[in-house]
Amino acid sequence: MGVVPLKEIVDRAMRDRYGVAAINIVNDLTLESVLAAAVERRSPIIVQTSVKTVKSIGSDVLMAMWRAMTAGIEVPCCLHLDHCPERAVITECLDKGWNSVLFDASTMPVEENLRQTIEVVAEARAHGAHVEGEIEAIKGVEDDVGSDEVSKRQSLEVSVHFVETSGVDVFAPSIGNAHGVYSATPHLDDQRVTDLVAATGVPIALHGGTGLSDEQFTDLIARGCAKVNVSTALKVTYMQSNLAFLRETEERGKWDPPSLFRHVGADVTAMAAGYVDRFGSAGMAW
């Protein structure tokens, strides 16, 4: 199938009530490994890049990597810009070929957020791309974006008005979820997901997927969380795998970078495949 629009992926997932893993990659190795997991499991996949990753690697290099690694791929995939408050970066990524963006204006008053989101949606449409919207900051700092303060939760009426007026394709509400590692199993407002889907018909993005229980994933996906974000788990897996291999390498005194890459890549692929299985998207490629 290859690279497809975000909306095609999430609309199918919500219709059939499975979740699609949206995994933040940090370099070429993690990109290759996440795509390998999707192919292995015959699953659609959403690859995400943070603003920090775009700036550190460069949009041209990231897009070259993406095109090279998805050439001939036989599962549906798309490239998404995660949590971006900077309009210039959104424009840059859309111009380069990203399939979708999350315009994160959650620190703005809702009215200004809506005004600018309408502009971003129009810009994305001109590129054949889609937009995820957000009016409440998800607690936690991720790749230098966000806050540890709990954001005020807007009413259902305000949220529905934002979704319907802005024309966003995916909506990311705050339901007690958080970026990073949870200190305890969070208590989530799952009814809010049900209410938003019933009122708008728009797929929901679940942020802060690392650390939720299988029961929570299953329940929220059944309610309409079609896009499930995973970032912290990849970073932890990637760095711990490097650390473990390098410690063993130091003991043996045998330094071979390709062996390190194979080891870390296998661990990241296994991690991503595990989330695909948990979210019910294995075998859902078309």
UniProtKB/TrEMBL annotation:
Cofactor: Zn(2+)
GO terms, molecular function: aldehyde-lyase activity; zinc ion binding
List of residues binding dihydroxyacetone phosphate: G180, G208, G209, T210, N229, V230, S231, T232
Pfam families linked: F_bP_aldolase
Coiled-coil residue windows: none
Residues reported in the UniProt entry to bind Zn(2+) 1: H83, H179, H207
Domain of life: Bacteria
Alphabetical list of SUPFAM superfamilies matching this protein: Aldolase (SSF51569)
Active site: D82 (proton donor)
Keywords recorded for this protein, A-Z: Metal-binding, Zinc
Residues that hold Zn(2+) 2 according to the record: D104, E134
Cofactor binding: number and manner: Binds 2 Zn(2+) ions per subunit. One is catalytic and the other provides a structural contribution.
GO BP term, pick one: carbohydrate metabolic process
Database matches in PANTHER family: D-TAGATOSE-1,6-BISPHOSPHATE ALDOLASE, D-TAGATOSE-1,6-BISPHOSPHATE ALDOLASE SUBUNIT GATY-RELATED
Descriptive protein name: Fructose-bisphosphate aldolase, class II
Organism: Asanoa ishikariensis
Record lineage: Bacteria, Bacillati, Actinomycetota, Actinomycetes, Micromonosporales
